[in-house]
Write a structure and sequence with these properties.
The chain has 317 residues and is of the alpha/beta class. The protein has helices spanning 6-10, 17-42, 54-67, 86-99, 108-114, 130-141, 156-159, 206-216, 279-287, 293-297, 308-313, and strands at 46-49, 76-80, 103-107, 145-147, 164-167, 195-198, 227-234, 237-240, 254-259, 272-273.
């Protein structure tokens, strides 16, 4: 055997899928940790948006690595519509307690009582109205940076947004007036009343998230894995049958094996057919997915009136 070829045979090939996967995840994790530490250093009153969903749990894991377990330098914040899955809110509370983190919850229902949120009808989705409650929380606590788990691959408007996304004194995002982020240099200057939304996992994909969940053995609410649920088919989606989303006339209720790719307000979040029982199974499913998670699961993203870009200009996450 030629001596020059022997080292190539003894060492794993550089194009090994496992090696590429770990290297890629390490780079994404390193970037997220850098951004999380940058926020802690640059702002006086930051907070981490934490819903108990998979992306915020990945973000929380990175924060643990950045600062150490039980040593987060900022509180957790959730805007609760009152229509969230109890499996997720229960998990949210449990995880915050395990970490010894301060958890601040502000409710859309309280905004409704104050008259700052008014529904067109009682069963209207409260999802879009979270913007009002969020801006009220920012004013209440004088937050100057809100760390979120949004990713660019989720939706076109999110793909336009910087990692450090400036918001004006009205809480609005101006797509044409974003600050450059050359060489990972972030302009964090703020005028009175302004704040930043910061997205440390902007460059992650849904597949990256699930590979990281598998690698780090991150516990998730049970809704993310296969379970039996009554659903109806509506406009190409599987709508869960609940008190808030009852079947309509002529719709056939079915009991199917499903899981949620993303979780949120019950009135606009749909599951998908799935037998994936763990993170490894979900990774395999995600590799073959032809529709984005929001496109496959969010009723509110199906209408142009509720476009994400308009919502973000109005102060949405």
């Amino acid at each position: 055997m030629n001596a020059r070829t022997e080292p190539e045979l003894l060492s794993p090939p550089m194009h090994s899928p496992a090696r590429l996967s770990n290297t890629h995840l390490d780079a994404l994790e390193e970037e997220a940790i850098f951004v999380l530490r940058e926020v802690a250093a640059a702002f006086e009153r930051p907070t981490l948006l934490f819903s108990g969903g998979k992306d915020s749990l990945v973000l929380l894991k990175c924060a643990e690595k950045a600062f150490g377990a039980g040593r987060l330098p900022y509180p957790l914040l959730m805007i609760d519509t009152g229509h969230n899955f109890h499996e997720v809110t229960d998990f949210r509370d449990q995880r915050a307690k395990e970490l010894g983190a301060e958890l601040i919850v502000r409710n859309v229902e309280d905004s409704m009582k104050r008259g700052t949120v008014r529904l067109a009808h009682p069963l209207e989705s409260r999802n879009v109205h979270q913007s009002v409650t969020l801006l009220e929380a920012i004013e209440e606590f004088r937050f100057d940076a809100l760390i979120g788990g949004a990713r660019r691959d989720e939706e076109k408007a999110r793909a336009k947004e910087r990692i450090f996304s400036h918001r004006d004194s009205f809480g609005q995002w101006q797509p044409k007036d974003q600050r450059p982020e050359l060489w990972t240099l972030f302009n964090t200057r703020l005028a009175p009343g302004e704040h930043f939304r910061v997205f440390p996992i902007s460059n992650w994909t849904e597949l990256d998230v699930w590979q990281y969940i598998e690698r780090e053995n991150i516990a998730l609410p049970s809704l993310y894995y296969t379970h039996k649920r009554e659903v109806v088919e509506r406009k190409g989606l599987l709508v869960p049958v609940t008190e808030l989303t009852p079947p309509r006339e002529g719709e056939q209720v079915e009991l199917r094996d499903v899981r949620f790719r993303t979780v949120g307000d019950i009135t606009c979040t749909c599951p998908v057919d799935s037998l994936a029982a763990d993170a490894g199974d979900v990774v395999i499913e995600t590799l073959s997915a032809e529709v984005s998670e929001r496109g496959a699961t969010r009723m509110d993203d199906k209408t142009s009136e509720a476009s994400m870009e308009k919502r973000k200009k109005d102060g949405y996450f």
